[in-house]
C-alpha cells in the first residue's frame, strides 16, 4: 500500500511539473497547443465566454510571461548589486496585479481562480479585454489597442498615457504582429484540435 501511494504521488508530481513548464516552441500556436493538450480547450472556452480571440489572448500572454506559470517582474537592483523590491505585485501567466485579480474574481464569479493556472489566466485575459471594450471602447479585433489598455490600465489608456511611450507602442505592435501570425497558423490545426478523441484527459 505505501508503495502504491508513493507511485501515485510521483506520477502527480511529474504531471504537475510537465503542466507548469512553458511550451518549447512558442512561435507557432499549433506547436503550443500540440505540446500543451489542455490549453486549446481552455483558450476556446475563454474565447466563447468573453469574445476575445484565441490568437489575441495568447499573444498578450506570451508578451506578459512567455507562458511561465509563476512569472514575476524582475527585482530592481540596489547599488547595482543587491536585489531590491519588485516593481509591482504582478504574477502568473497573465502578470495580473493583486487588485486587478481580485476585481476579476469578483466580477467573473471565479472566486477560486489562481494566477498560475492557465485555465484561469487565459480566462482573465479574455475578461480584461472585454472590460477594455466596455470601458475604453476598444474593438476586440484591435490587439494593438487592447495591449496598450492591458499594460496601462483603462484609466491610463483613456488618458492616453501611452502616447509618449514609444517603447510601449513598439511592444504593442509586436503583440499585434504575433496575434496576426497566430491567427494565420491556427486554421492549420484547429480542425484536428476540435476533433473527437483529441483530448486525453
Describe this structure in words.
With 201 residues, the protein is an all-alpha fold. It has one domain: Lysozyme. It is built from 9 helices and 2 strands. A two-stranded antiparallel sheet has the order 1-2. A hairpin with a 3-residue loop joins β1 (77-78) and β2 (82-83). α3 (37-50) packs parallel to α6 and α6 crosses α7 (143-158). The radius of gyration is 18 Å and the shape is globular. Residues 5-19 and 197-201 have low confidence and may be disordered. Residues 1-26 form the signal peptide. Pfam families: SLT_4 (PF19489). This is Membrane protein.
Please outline what is shown here.
The protein is mainly alpha-helical and 201 residues long.
Write the layout of secondary structure elements.
Layout: H1 2-20, H2 29-35, H3 37-50, H4 54-65, E1 77-78, E2 82-83, H5 98-108, H6 118-136, H7 143-158, H8 166-185, H9 187-194
Antiparallel strand pairs: 1-2
Helix pairs in contact: 2-3, 3-6, 4-6, 4-8, 6-7, 7-8
Amino acid at each position: 500500500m505505501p508503495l502504491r501511494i508513493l507511485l501515485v504521488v510521483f506520477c502527480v508530481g511529474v504531471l504537475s511539473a510537465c503542466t507548469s513548464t512553458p511550451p518549447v516552441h512558442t512561435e507557432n500556436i499549433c506547436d503550443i497547443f500540440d505540446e500543451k493538450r489542455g490549453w486549446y480547450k481552455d483558450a476556446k472556452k475563454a474565447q466563447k465566454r468573453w469574445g476575445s480571440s484565441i490568437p489575441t489572448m495568447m499573444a498578450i500572454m506570451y508578451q506578459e510571461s512567455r507562458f511561465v506559470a509563476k512569472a514575476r517582474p524582475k527585482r530592481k537592483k540596489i547599488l547595482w548589486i543587491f536585489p531590491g523590491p519588485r516593481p509591482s505585485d504582478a504574477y502568473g501567466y497573465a502578470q495580473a496585479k493583486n487588485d486587478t485579480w481580485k476585481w476579476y474574481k469578483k466580477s467573473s464569479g471565479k472566486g477560486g481562480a489562481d494566477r498560475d493556472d492557465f485555465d484561469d489566466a487565459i480566462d482573465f485575459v479574455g475578461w480584461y479585454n472585454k472590460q477594455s471594450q466596455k470601458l475604453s471602447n476598444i474593438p476586440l479585433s484591435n490587439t494593438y489597442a487592447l495591449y496598450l489598455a492591458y499594460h496601462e490600465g483603462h484609466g491610463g489608456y483613456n488618458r492616453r498615457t501611452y502616447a509618449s511611450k514609444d517603447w510601449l507602442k513598439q511592444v504593442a505592435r509586436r503583440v499585434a504582429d504575433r496575434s496576426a501570425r497566430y491567427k494565420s497558423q491556427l486554421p492549420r490545426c484547429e480542425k484536428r484540435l476540435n476533433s473527437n478523441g483529441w483530448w486525453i484527459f
